[in-house]
Structure formats: structure tokens, C-alpha cells
Known about the structure:
By secondary structure, this protein is an alpha/beta fold. It has 3 domains: 4-142 and 156-178 and 215-303, 3-Layer(aba) Sandwich (Rossmann fold), CATH 3.40.50; 342-424, Anticodon-binding domain of a subclass of class I aminoacyl-tRNA synthetases (Four Helix Bundle (Hemerythrin (Met), subunit A)); 429-481, no CATH class. The protein has 16 helices and 15 strands. A hairpin with a 2-residue loop joins strand 14 (468-473) and strand 15 (476-481). Helix 4 (126-138) crosses helix 6 and helix 15 (431-449) packs antiparallel against helix 16. The radius of gyration is 27 Å and the shape is elongated. It starts with a strand and ends in a 5-residue tail after the last strand. It binds one RNA strand through helix 1, helix 5, helix 7, strand 12 and helix 10.
Amino acid sequence: MALWIYNYLTREREQFEPLQEGYVGMYACGPTVYDHAHLGHAKTYVALDVMVRYLRHLEYDVRYVQNITDVGHLLDSGEDRIIRKARLERVEPMEVAATYERSYFEDMDALGVQRPNIAPRASGHIPEQIQVVETLLEKGYAYETEGGDVYFAVERVEDYGKLSGRDVEDLEAGARVDVRDEKRHPADFALWKHADPEHILRWPSPWGWGYPGWHVECTAMATRYLGETFDIHGGGVDNIFPHNECEIAQSEAATGEPFARYWVLTGSLTVDDVKMSKSLGNFVTIKDALETYSPEAIRFFILSSHYRKPVDYSREAMLGAERGVKRLHNTVRSLRQRKERAAPSGIVDRSEVDKLAPYSERFLEAMNDDFNTPRAIAALFDLNREVNELLNSGKSLGQATWKAIDDVYRELGGRVLGIIPDQLTDEVSGELVEGLMDIILGIRERYRRNKEWQEADALRDRLAKLGIVVDDRPEGPIWRRESGSG
RNA sequence: GGCGGCGUAGCCAAGUGGCAAGGCAGGACUCUGCAAAAGUCCCAUCCGCCGGUUCGAAUCCGGCCGCCGCCUCCA
């Protein structure tokens, strides 16, 4: 089974073959850290996270690089986003960047998004960026203006627009042209911007004091950590133009080599069918979402649609996700409890475990088909039904057999999709709670044996008020903590 | 205006030539003191609309309608 990836560069599904056997270099455009991340960011980074996780499942050694933009990302007004925020909050620009970078990683950690191997900051790679600009000037792909700005000359590149399917001539017609600047072509983009002394975020360069343009950082950092040509470049589609296009143009012009080989772009998150974005104000921060929904539900919601498609955020959809993921968790919880209570046998009952193999295969087939997580999740649910039947069948299997089944969940639902934690929340209650619950349920069992239903039910109701749900199973009562709104 | 994409049940969502996956919600039943969990069954003769190609189309072609993204703020 081979992995196939839809490559935006060729607009075709292609069999994935890394540059170097067994090794994958992957880059993703990270956030500009001037505010808290919202669910739109979550969609992109959860989707990319699952790709990385799956590549690792396939035993590729993945180096995942995701930049942190802390300088150079300009507003329409020409003002740097970070600096603007710093001015509004009366703090150092780097304080803004540090604050929101921390916030970003807190959110990603909470969502189970694995950290990139390297998360380089733009401000920490100014010399590398200057080097790229110098190379481009030397090779004649860029020009310096009298004001001390350096621009990339789009017309010098034959295939400019190849990723987004854009034509330089069309751009001229529709471009929002800034009349004041000294660009030779409206689509030319800044590599280096001059900055006056009152500009608080600036560095010396061969062209005087200034700061790098937004796009250069990705070229500088991607090539530095992954090489001139690397395997996969990911990001949100909304950055396909101009950002990704500019990255390709300047990178390939500077190195003379192809840049990223496979481009994977994620569809946007929408609210009422309109893209969630800072500028529209229709965003929900990840922190806010986590107040209401579990991290697994948020991941489930994102992964239940294919990464290239847009996803519409709604309370209804989120509740559906919450319930769906809970269904998987319920089975896993029962499975693990059964494992704990089973006879410690080291022999795996192959006939039982082999029955589940087709579901794993379907899961992997789906993932191999351009990371088709919705289909993978469907396979997981079919597996779930099979496992529930087994749990209900009353068959007494040895510990090793239950463990083998649990391992399937841990690998596919846990390690690959990140929607099944290694420890469910109520599995980490600690000895004290475990002990107290044993006592309480023991008392309740005595009431039940004596058919004192009112007493038994009252106890169950009081526990429910504390968020503890008790299920009376034929093999004895089990309990779980119910959190969130699901 | 240019480029790209989408429209599948009440909701979410796979499927891209052979008689519509999966989840949520809903209904019936089984188990059960009750509840919960779980299981079984039911829940789109139909895939925006209209034509065409084909033995056969949600899937291909043409037209139409509606919606969205990008076109230098955006993951």
C-alpha cells in the first residue's frame, strides 16, 4: 500500500516518494503571533499534524519545521502587525510575539498537536534572510529602490503563478496597486523594507536599516533546515496567493532548484459559510472553544471532513462530534477495564484479533488515499461495533488479547488521529478517587442486593451531580467522569 | 472581471461509471429493578436543476441556478 497525496502544484494525486528513502522534510507556514489563535488555525494545524503523525506511522523519519512569524507581516496600512499590537498594548514588540507564541503552543498542546521539530522565528533568522535577498539581487531577480526597499521582480520568473494558477498579466489588471511605492510591476513584492529610526523593530542590512518582507522568512528557514529542495510544504489555502507563490518564486530563483515537491493546502474553516478570520471578527479562539468542547471533539470535528475541504463551524456539528468521540471513548474505556479484570494470560487469541484486521486495513487504505480521515474514522466506527459485540458476548479472553485490541485503538485512534487519549480523563483520577469510588459503589451494591432501589438511585443521582456517571453492567458497576457539554 | 472550488437524508460527512460508507439526532426492539452503556432493526428509489453520452451516472459531457475561497490583512 502506497501513500498518495494530492499535490497542489500539479493538481493531481501523486504517489508519495520522498527525496531520500525513509526521510521526509516537511515545512508549514506557521502563525503570525500577534493575537490568540482561533479555530481556523486549529483546522490547519490539526490536519497537518495528522499528516505528520501518519508519515511517522509509516515509519518515515519526519523533520517537521513550522515557522513563527514575529516580524514583517504587514497590514494594508503598511504597518507591521506585531508593532501595531505593541503600540496598542504599550509593550515591546518582542513581548507581543513572545506572549502569543506561548499562547499558540499552549493551544496546540491542548489540542494534541505535536510540536514541530523546529519552530524557527523570523526575527532569529535575519542574517539568513538578508543572504537570500543578496543572492536574489546578485542574480538579477530583485532590485533596490531609492528609498532603501528591495523588491522581487516578478516578471523575471517565467513560471510565476504556477501554484495558484495565476497569470502575471491578469494580476496587473486586478491588483490593488499602492500608488506611492516604487515597484516596477504591481505584483512585485517586498524582500526588504526600509525602516526609519522611530521604527522600533529593525535591523541593519546592506540596504540600510530595515526589516524583511513577510515571504522571505519561509524561504530562508525552509532551505536552511530542510535543504533547497524538500518533500512537503503545507499550509492553509488562503495563503496560496500571494504568500506561497512568492515563496516558490524567490526560493527557486535564489537556489536554482525546485522548492517543495508536494504542496498540501488545507481548506478554510467557515462560520455560516463565511471564512473565520481575524479581520471579519467572526472567530472563536481555541481557548474559548476548549471551555465548551473537549480537545478530542475539536480534533474529531476537524478530521471528520477531508482536509482540503472547507468545514463549517456550528454548535450542532460540534455536539455531533462530541457525541461521536464519546462513543469511541466509551468502548475503549470498557475494553481497558475488561483488560484490567481479565486473567493474566500472555497468549493472544488470534482468531479474535484477526477478525479486526480488515478494519485496520480499511483505515490505512483511507489514510493512504490523500489522508482521507473521514473514511478512516468510519472504519474506526465499524471496528468499534465489532469490539462492542465482543465485549457484550461475555467471552472471557486473556489479558494479552484485550491488550492487542486496545493497541489497535492506541495506534490508529491515538497515535495517528489523536482522538483517543492513552489515558481517558477518568483513568487518571488517582488512587484516592479510585478508593473512594470503590467504597461508594460497594455501599450502593449492598443497597441493590437488598433491593433498596431508592437508596441506590439516590446515590447514583448524587454522583451524577458531581459529573460521575455509573453504569450497572452484568459484570459489575463501572463509572466514568462526564465533562464538557457533550 | 480573472483563477480555483463546492452543492449527497433534519445536522455533519465519505463515495467520482455498476444498483448511496460512517457519525449525530429520531423511531421500534433486546439486555436491565430502573437508568446508562451496548447490540439488532428502521430512517436518501435518491445525490442543486435541466439536457446528453452509456447496457448502466451522484460519479463523464453541456447548460442553468445557488454558495464559497483567492486576486498582496489572513492558517
